[in-house]
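Risk register update: the risk of archive-format incompatibility is retired. Evidence:
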Amino acid sequence: MIAFDVIKTVRVTEKATIQSEKLNKFTFLADRRASAPEIKRAVEQLFNVKVLRVNTANYEGKARRQKTKNAGKSSDYKKAIVTLKKGEKITLQ
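Archived output:
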């Protein structure tokens, strides 16, 4: 997998913003098949930073219903929390 296939998007939430400012941790949505070492390589390639640790969590999509008959499910996803070395920074615009 190439780096753009591994990292799908940056997760920007209130909690993720606080973690990035205080703890130097950034949250990404990653491909479900990607392992932690692959995510580490992809972040280092895309953002030119040094990664200390990658924590991942798999989430199952929630059951959704529209009106009365249409049942469905939101997509499954993998969340990766990446800890950077001290002094490293990712600027999100």
